[in-house]
Amino acid sequence: MRLSVIIITKNEAAHIGACLDSLAFADEIIVLDSGSTDATGEIVRQRGAGWHQRADWPGFGPQKNRALALATGDWVLSVDADERVTPELAAQIRQAIQNPAAADAYRMARLSNFCGRWIRHSGWWPDYVVRLFRRQAGRFTEAAVHESVQVRGRTGTLAGHFLHYPYASFEVFIDKINRYSSEAARAAYDRGRRTSVLGPFGHGFWTFFRHYALRRGVLDGWQGLILAGMAGTGSFYRYAKLYGLQRQAAADTTGKPAP
Description:
- The protein is of the alpha/beta class.
- The chain is globular.
- The strands form two sheets. Strands 1, 2, 3, 4, 5, 6, 7, 8 and 11 form a nine-stranded mixed sheet that branches. Strands 9-10 form a two-stranded antiparallel ribbon.
- The chain has two domains: 3-164, Spore Coat Polysaccharide Biosynthesis Protein SpsA, Chain A, CATH 3.90.550.10; 170-254, no CATH class.
- It has helices at 16-21, 40-46, 60-70, 87-97, 170-190, 199-214, 221-254, and strands at residues 3-9, 28-33, 50-53, 75-78, 83-85, 105-114, 117-118, 129-134, 138-140, 149-151, 155-164.
- The protein has seven helices and eleven strands.
């Protein structure tokens, strides 16, 4: 059984080299880029991975389905550029695909690092994600953000985990919150979801409380406090932008400025 790895990128020079190095066990690596202006492409080509580019950006789900269409292996492993496959997980993946009757897809945990600390609480662990699947049995949802794999068949669980390095700096974290909240607000609006002017405040506070107290972010030290605050901020932004879309739509309909 052949294994294809798919990765979508944009300006991932800081991560992609180590990511690809951890994937040496794969039979094929497909990297689909959406317009990098840094050294991402050079690093990918130096390591012998397949390099493809599409200038437009349709969202995470559609872009991953584009990468999936380029894969030729019997099994597909979807990896983000800021993730690493440990040797233990690599061995489990190779064993799993040699026994295709056991499952059609597998989920695995991610252990994430934030500001030098491995986060064991805050809703970040074990963070199970379906990433390994038979190519003919899985496809990503068309969601612009928070996409997932839809599987036709049985999903198993691997004991190993990814190592995840999601934020190189606070600036990167803040930029990601801004981008994701915009895309999530637009997706929510298109689904018919609406909020009140107080909605952003309520959702923001609840998200902070859930991460810091209910998900025990308090046990993750000062990093847990920061993560809870950023999660609450992201939720506030998402609903504030959703409310903004509502008011703009109302103004466009009535011809009057939104209040």
